Give the backbone structure.
Amino acid sequence: MPVKGLGEYDTNNIFARILRGEIPSKRVYEDDFAIAFHDIAPQAPIHVLVIPRGPYISIADFTAKASDAEIAGFFRAVGHVAKALELEAPGYRILSNMGEHSGQEVPHLHVHLFGGKPLGAMLVNR
Ligand code: 5GP
């Protein structure tokens, strides 16, 4: 079910539980600011999620509350993962859902990183 409205951070959302190690994940990267792991239901040959360690729901929430170091660290992690997965040369797509209209299901900020084949049109249902 998509997130309805972006209210208080839910400390028991799936990604919070993955961060705490309560739910296993196939991690491909981690540092002080972010972790990256394979999506459980991949929609491309490579489908990795990058999430900040801090409790943020959306980009607006993150950029309003996080420190400069957390913000820089998170986006550096996205770039690092893209390079580490050798996606710079063939290309890839990042996507981040925010709120009900986007279909965001997990209310912890995350960037999807898709790659491994030509990805087609940016939006399917225009
Ligand atoms: P959203 O729709 O919120 O942008 O994306 C949430 C993503 O999290 C989906 O692509 C979904 O497959 C993935 N996901 C949901 N639960 C789990 C889980 O327990 N483990 C992993 N690795 N991914 C999950």
